[in-house]
Write a structure and sequence with these properties.
The chain has 2 domains: 260 residues, Aldolase class I (TIM Barrel, Alpha-Beta Barrel); 42 residues, no CATH class. It is α/β, with parallel strands linked by helices. Helices cover 44% and strands 15% of the residues.
Length: 314
């Protein structure tokens, strides 16, 4: 494996643990402003430091992620359909040159094995791999599952193996019963999709089983950003992957971080503290503590005193 490819993969899958925590925030490319991702920047900002990679589109990368981030980017480069139509009719939306300009560590697209447009999505994967390999950029194939397809080891094993045969360097698929068979039949690393929102402990149990049965990591979205405490949840998942935590230990980390954040919010007091006495008072009516704007009454008294002094001089 050439150096560039090896280096990019090592940025996503941590060599010291062999695992990866990817944060999927690309849902809007076909769902629009889904719950928890209505304002992507607000969702991503506190979570990115705990993720080994962010999976997202170029639009959200440009508008919602700071250019100073050190978190590697797995760039979603397929799309062209919405939840209102058949999702399997996707195409390539972002060129490999654009991925290079955006400093992507990997590119990703969905394949729809067994769907009406199976051939088009598989050829799309092949063409993307051909272009990405020229620049040492790994391709992540996402085994999308249509509503009429079973999420069982036979189907997911088929789709994952086809993706690997076509040259994908990584595969994202779903956890299922007999998951070991899916892993055994796929000669490239597998990360599991988080799927629909689960109770926090169930999501941790699924991630732990997947890792125990051969997955190198998770690419979670809704089970993190739709959690009752997303920052606590991503830290709990991280403990599973990189600190060898048990499910019980990870769930305790989640609860402890949740309690700590609750105490911190309480310590800051109310989000808005009224300090003005009447409508003619020129001072701001609120101290917006939660947003980080700190204007003290002492400061305003000092300012008003200076204004009185200036008026007397005039």
């Amino acid at each position: 494996m050439e150096w560039g490819m090896q280096n990019r993969l090592a940025r996503i899958i941590r060599p010291e643990t062999g695992h990866s925590l990817m944060l999927a925030v690309d849902h809007g490319y076909f769902l629009g402003p889904t719950s928890g991702l209505e304002i992507p920047a607000e969702t991503i900002r506190p979570l990115a430091p705990y993720a080994d990679a962010l999976m997202l589109t170029r639009g959200i990368l440009r508008t919602s992620v700071t250019g100073t981030t050190s978190t590697p980017i797995v760039l979603r480069v397929s799309g062209g359909t919405s939840i209102l139509r058949d999702l399997d009719n996707e195409g390539i939306t972002t060129t490999i040159r654009e991925a290079i300009r955006l400093n992507a560590a990997a590119v990703a697209l969905s394949i729809f094995v067994g769907a009406e447009h199976e051939k088009e999505t598989l050829l799309g994967l092949s063409n993307l791999i051909n272009e990405a390999e020229e620049y040492g950029i790994p391709t992540l194939a996402v085994t999308a599952v249509g509503k009429d397809m079973a999420r069982d080891a036979r189907y997911l094993g088929l789709a994952s193996r086809i993706a690997a045969e076509l040259g994908a360097r990584m595969v994202k698929t779903y956890y299922c019963d007999d998951f070991e068979k899916v892993v055994a039949g796929c000669p490239v690393p597998i990360v599991i999709a988080g799927g629909k929102k689960l109770p926090e402990r169930e999501a941790l149990e699924m991630a732990h089983r997947a890792i125990s049965e051969g997955a190198v990591g998770v690419d979670m979205g809704r089970n993190i950003f739709q959690s009752e405490n997303p920052v606590a949840m991503i830290q709990a998942v991280r403990a599973l992957l990189h600190e060898n935590a048990t499910v019980d230990e990870a769930f305790e980390i989640f609860n402890e971080k949740k309690r700590s954040s609750g105490k911190e919010e309480k310590a800051h007091g109310k989000k808005a503290v009224v300090i003005g006495k009447d409508q003619t008072d020129p001072r701001p009516k609120e101290i917006k503590v939660a947003q980080g704007y700190y204007e003290t009454s002492k400061h305003h008294e000092k300012r008003r005193g200076k204004e009185k002094h200036d008026r007397k001089k005039r």
